[in-house]
Amino acid sequence: MSDTFQALKRLMHKARLSLLLLSALALGSLSCNSKPASPTPAATAKSRAALTTGWQATGSMSLPRRLPTATVLDSGKVLVVGGWDRDFLASAELYDPNSGTWLPTGALSLGREGHTATLLSSGEVLVVGGEIGSDPGSTATAALYQPQTGLWTDAGSTSLARAYSTATLLPSGKVLVAGGGNTNGSHARVDVYDPAGGWSTLPSTMNDERRRHTATLLPSGKVLVTGGRGWRIFETAEAYDPGNPQAGWAFVAPMATPRYDHTATLLPSGKVLIAGGRNTTGPLNTSEVYDPATNSWTVAQMATPRTLHTATLLPSGKVLVAGGETSTPLDTAELYDPETNTWSASITLRTPRRLHAAVMLNALSKVIVLGGENVVAGQTARLNTAELLDTCETVTCNTAPSQCHSSAGVCSNGGTCTYPLQPAGFSCNDGSACTGNDVCGSTGTCSGTSVACEAPPGQCYQSAGTCSDGSCSYSYKAAGTQCDDGDACTLSETCNGSGGCAGTPVSCTTPPGQCYQAAGTCSGGACTYAPKTAGATCNDGNAGTINDVCNGAGACAGVPACTTPPSACHDSPGTYANGACTYPVKAAGTACGAGQVCNPAGQCLSGCWIGGAYYAAGVTNPSVACQECNPGVTTSGWSNKAVGSTCAAPTNGNWGSCDGFSDTCDETGSQSRTVTAYACTSSGACGSSAGTESQACTRSTGGTACGTSYGGWGSCEGFDNYCDTTGTQSRTVTGSTCGSGTCNASSTSTETQPCTRAAPNTSCAAPSYGAWGACSFSDACAQTGTQSRTVTTSSYSCATGQCVASTSTETQSCTRNTDGNNCGTPSYGGWGTCSGYSGTCDETGTQSRSVTSYSCSSGTCRSSTGTESQTCNRNRDGVSCGTNTGAWGSCGGFSDFCDASGSQSRTVTDYECGSGSCDVASSDTESQTCTRTPPGPKACPPSYGSWSACGGFSDACDATGTQSRQVTYYTYSCATGQCTPTANGSETQTCTRTPPGPQACQPTSYGPWGTCNRATPCGQGYQERTVTTYSYSCASGACGATTTTQTQDCSLPSYPGWTLCGTTCTVLDYDSDNCGSCGNACTGPKYNICMEGNCCNSPSNCL
């Protein structure tokens, strides 16, 4: 294969995604889950000053490699497999971190790039798929590397040829291979490799056909797939649970930005970091973090747009992104901090590179990047170099944990900072305003001398206080503690428990005389008393005076007199004796004024004297309710009350039921009852009259249903697929309930009914056939084999409403002539003498040796002996060696993806000898027009969001609701060659749930039995208690309580003389049916009256 052809093929493959991204992801996951050994501090502790800064060169690989895979083995060595350098590489080599050198190891049977490499639980490495140099351009084969022998063994094949897929090691030890692409486009198929049983295909495919995506194993055991490209560039993400394979693949929340050629890294928190990549706008400078717990994404801005880079999880939990490309390969690196969701610049690579590999060397706490390609002076160069970065260089140890640690820390164990202690006595601030002279102790703790609180604000505070925020506070002494308030007019001072001191005031209650105030005033410990006002009553001690009063100066004096009887019921004058006048009382009943009489106590009152007793005016006769004392009529007898005067309290019947409401929601009505009034008649009797009275009453109608209204039927929708002719249509049902006495709309629900539409046209195109493939044979010499071709059939898809093509394979036998073909590895004799040169620039002569080769003859491998030669060197630098016209390049330069006319060019190169080879001396380019079948325009199917939660239930017992999802419609863009979103809509379908109700409520509760109420004189009674029952309300979604009253019989002591005979309560002395004893009936024609317990004919004639 010529260099020119290889260069053109390289250009054709330039845009393809590096599977390196997936390898870096898988290895990043391993580094997250594999805790490095704990070396001794002497071996690992390095100050930043002692580090060799920046990326350091290490040994180079034997070959340049673009897009290889790199896998850290259990031994710590790194296995690098495949890639591309002018051809697809089958070789592999090992990097020894301890020596920094590369070692050869076994090669694959088939060169490839864009493959996957997965470290199995057994320590073996599984390589799957990839691009290859022969038809059909990619392979389904898998190989297994055994580190103990360094050899590869066949591991079967996946169900289809694929490159740029993902391979995820599951907790079960199986490997999940998802998606990828080949010449037929991207695929959604998923295969599983079981080390014990080989390959199988999952029944469920991914929802989107995708390649150049990422796959991440989550801590839950689920596999998260993000982005990639297929019929468009995807922002979608989906997850698969190996523990629940029946559930298949389910969409999760989509990313904010469509992307492919990105990286995915599992963070220690269980979240997933998606970084960079590209879409139709070019390389991206955004990252997104997925949180499985909330099914949400968080966006962060990167400094540089990049794709085809690597992402490595560091021991510190940060993520190092290195290299990649924007428009050319990058040497920059960035560091992601999950704690702040921010990016910062990191250390620049020695060499710009893209399509490289990077892994974490845990034993050395270093990151190695290797291979890839760079562009120098406009020429693409594959790289065989590797470089190392100590992870301590990604950490700045300048954040000491306290003031008592040195601010200059030491990095060790791949990113752990330790900080030396400050010397004991080092000045610090412990943050407390209640300490002074703060210094560091030997353990790194800052402490100071406590502030002394020994000056309480008073004698009723404790002598020792406590400090807070720099201020002293003191506790109160207990109430009753002795103190001195400094006041001579108080006694027995004690603390009050609130910091105050108080005593009992001196009592000044012994005035020097009765004409002084009873309460005096203390001053300086002595009491003084003020005189009473002049005229204040007193007793001068003289029995011959009356009306003694104070004179205002503290003296008392009175006058004697007995001429003023206290009332008209006393005679005058009175008799003065012992300092007082006494007056004789007039006879009770003596008239002492108009309508007034004297009572026995000598009081003149308005009333009557009747039957030797005094009755006040208006008092009712105790024996006749319609008579009263009316002194205006007579004071010596009872008078009839006025006609109509109330003579007894009215009696009321029970209130009737509340009714008379105007409508269902009216809460105000009326109720009535009978009222019996009692009033005096003209004859003085107490008569009765009956009437009625009414009052307003209320009821609660809140929540009572009072009407339902219906909206119009909506459009017919909710079809399961394009073939489904039966859908549903809905309308709004508005329920009204009472509230505050009026009927108001209170709830809105939706009711649905089935509807139909016309069936679609399901006719599709006839089958088409691909060209017959190459003939495959059982061995190198077999002359009869088989060849296959693809058969594409179309069938109508009810899911998309379009004809969907499916591809199958048909096979036929074929023959070839293998006579003369090689069929085995030749054996060689010793080299002969070197002689002769072959060409103009040839600096090497030839030497020969015998070669025993193996070739086919009549279908059998046979041996034959010949010779082979090798070259010897000479110097031919600068000698012209010819002109080469390259092959026409691919047709390009189209104005858009719908343009069919373009141009193609080829290189015309002049060569001259240099270092023994014919090298390019000058190069020109010539062009011509060309045509193609353009990829567009084409139909773009819509994409669907996840169904929303089921809702819209009429009440808590309703099991049928609705759910909706977003529908995005796409239009093919000739400018981008992609289907781009042009409109958004939504669709709704019915859904069901297990409703929360009805549900069991708490059991019935019972109140205590009340007091026994007597029902009969025989002791029969009843008592009541409340019974609360609970029932579930679908409307409120809760249990409600209803209270009733329960009654039961009870017993009390019988009244004297009463007996219970069966169910009859009676007096045996007078009951003719139970006379003298229960059941003894007086039934005779003569003795049929019960008297005093005997059956009698008359009181004097008894049995």
Fold and architecture overview:
Residues 1-51 have low confidence and may be disordered. Among the domains are: 3-35 and 47-394, 6 Propeller (Neuraminidase); 943-992, no CATH class; 998-1052, no CATH class; 1056-1103, no CATH class. Strand 44 and strand 45 (556-559) form a beta hairpin. The radius of gyration is 57 Å and the shape is elongated. The protein is built from three helices and 81 strands. It has 1103 residues and is an all-beta fold. It starts with a helix and ends with a strand. Strands 20, 21, 22, 23 and 24 form a five-stranded antiparallel beta sheet that branches. Residues 1-34 form the signal peptide. It comes from Corallococcus aberystwythensis. Keywords: Kelch repeat, Repeat, Signal. Pfam families: Kelch_1.
